[in-house]
Amino acid sequence: MACNGRIRPEAGKSHMARLTLILGVLATVIYLLDGFRFALNEWRRWRHKGTWVSVMLLCLVPMAAWAEDLYVGQADAGVADGSNCANQHSVTWFNTAGNWGVGAGKISAGDTAHLCGTITTNQLIVQDSGTAGNVITILFETGAEIAPTECSSTGCMKVSSRSYIVIDGGTPCGWIQYANVTCNGKLYATTVQPLTSQAGITIEGCSFCEVRNLQVGPLYQIEAYVPGAGSAAFISSIKLSVGPATNTTLKIHHNVFSDAADVVSYIPAVDDNGLEFYNNYSYRVNKTVVLANSTNGVNLLAANIHDNHFGETANWDRNVPSQCSGLHHSAIHAFTTDVAGTATNSGIHFHHNFVDGLWGDCITSFVFYEGSGDRNHDNYVYTNLFAGSATVVSIGRVAVDGDGANYVLSNTMLCQGPTDVGYGPTGVSTSITFKNNIAHNCTTETSTTVGITITEWDYNIYDGCASACWHRSTPNVWENTLAGWQTYCACDSHSLYDASSSYIAVNSDGTLQASSPARGAGNNLTSLGIAALNTDYRGMGRPASGAWDMGAIQYADSTSSPVVVGRVLRWMEVASIVTLAGKVMWYFKNAIVSGVMLCLTVTSGLSLSAWQSGKQVAKQTSLVTLIAFNSLTKPKN
Questions:
Q1: Which stretches within 47-157 are classed as H helix?
Q2: Average pLDDT for residues 473-500, to the nearest whole number?
Q3: How far is residue 101 from each of residues 130, 131, 136, 159, 551, measured CA to CA in Å?
């Protein structure tokens, strides 16, 4: 989605912003010229010293043994030594444990396994682990894809009881700078509707693993879901279970997901706080992120879901709304199902996301934190732009259940039709902080159920609803006016409302118009100590002091837009890099002699196999040496 709304700047702020911009550009130009001057002077000193380059290359030759690039395709090709795609190893070679581990020609820590062409085998299995700072990368070459008739039930790519593994599609894609970007690497099933359960990627018991820059799907293509048709409800793009230790990292970012029942089905096996899902685009899926905590006594302590685009889900409808049980269209669905009732979900941050498209009959909520008592607590929903539409009334486009302190903050809800319920912090025994939110053109602004405890509910703005605007269930009453709602809840004393759908003056891209009453009417939430909350949906900083604007997007005139400011920052970054390059030249001129002599002394008596077996020790020794020289040499001014 691009931000195309044009906003009239206010005269005083506009002139000041333009003056600041001009001064910033002039300062940047001066800084850039000075950087080029410094770099040019250093180059003149270096240009007749080609000997240094030769010596550096002599030292770097044995260092190449630290990491290998091995190429894999569907079948052996050429001499099958894995040196390139023309001489690739086969998938059978990749799936053989003996071809992983220390030694030349094997996939080991620090190595990259390149995937070539089209692979039709339905499963690739990672056989070994990387180490901290030396991950094993599985990299899709240009045009590479895994495309079997259908994936295995345990994944077309399986990572089990491994660590430090990166699956990389090759080039950044997904949701980047508010636009959908296509991927290079692809993983999908060629059968339109496979008859068995399957997963694109399975990651279980993996610490510090990452999936990035990859298109996963379609895995199951459907236009109208029919009960009992195949095993569609058991098809996931990525199945995750964390382990074997706490405080691990699982990153899923810059991917495109489509045509699956779930995108990420995550079942923590131990207490965990390391899941991060960001810059992804998902569409034509039933649910995107499923946090299904089903293990007795296990606590999900944190999950960070941010900067994603969640698109349409209506193709997964069953046509008959009464048959929607189990589908739960949602961008995120967090719940617990353990028998003992001791598993909990907390620390979930859902923020800076964009939701649009048709969500159909079987929507539950865009955000659904489900549970009672203390099963879901201390979770967050903030700075999101919700613009999706649905054909049935749900419990609310944002629904937060559970106990403890839950937060819904600075979101913009652009309701799209007569069935849209804005916010539904519905929970049983939910303690809610609900502030700075926009509910625009919603049939019902908010809906609350029995047992809700309002911690703070204020500084919100509502429009577009003429009657039955606020629902409460104790007793079951619909409030027609803000005054009636304020009397009932003893809240929203600083909030604003008008029945006119033009009252908030918000554009279709979520930006505020200059005349919007939401400007400067929000509460400053800096004191909550949530760093990501202090920037708006577009990444612009909120005021450190003074009032905030309501909603996800802080008002900005044309000269202080993220695009203009971003360009100035990029110019200054270039200037900094140029200046730094010159200083780095001087530094290496002083450090390189001793460094190269040490490197040659150490490596001259070692064979290639010795380098393979001791490559991690050698690498760490070299890094320590460079750090030591850094402390002993100081550049001249």
A1: 50-63, 91-94
A2: 87
A3: 10, 12, 11, 16, 52
